[in-house]
């Protein structure tokens, strides 16, 4: 029998559900929007977030933004250099930085935290989660092989019990998505479907 997970010590990490990463008009639209749309991941993740809230689990949204002065952005990869060159598209108040409408109706215990790194936990979020007594995190978002994997690995190293939610993440390339999930199965507490995650909550 699968072990249970205490809802009062659990949070959902909802990564980069933004216009820039999911919509055709967003900065990464050419790379990700078609895969996001065809996969149906937004609808599944939105339903999962709602069900988790109903079980007493807060949802912590991360937004990739670049404030004036670049904040914590470090141009040490081609990816971050490209973002830095287009940083106006990532200003906190830019249309592309906004949470998509399917994710914008926040619960009273939800969080929204901005950062300038690939890991959604490269911010004050770990401290805020610890202050809430959170020990376990379910991870949703895009893209599986980028932010999702980086955050899941980071969270595991920080001491959280991390479960990527396999049907609430996606990537531009199906093969990269599957390969990333296979890696995450080894380096986290294991991938769960949305149904499996909800069924374990007590």
Automatic annotation (TrEMBL):
CDD domains: cysteine_hydrolases (cd00431). It holds the Pfam family Isochorismatase. It comes from the Bacteria. The keyword Hydrolase applies. Residues 22-195 form the Isochorismatase-like domain. GO terms for molecular function: hydrolase activity. Gene3D superfamilies: Isochorismatase-like (3.40.50.850). InterPro entries: Isochorismatase-like_dom, Isochorismatase-like_hydrls, Isochorismatase-like_sf. Keywords: Hydrolase. This is Cysteine hydrolase. It comes from Streptomonospora alba.
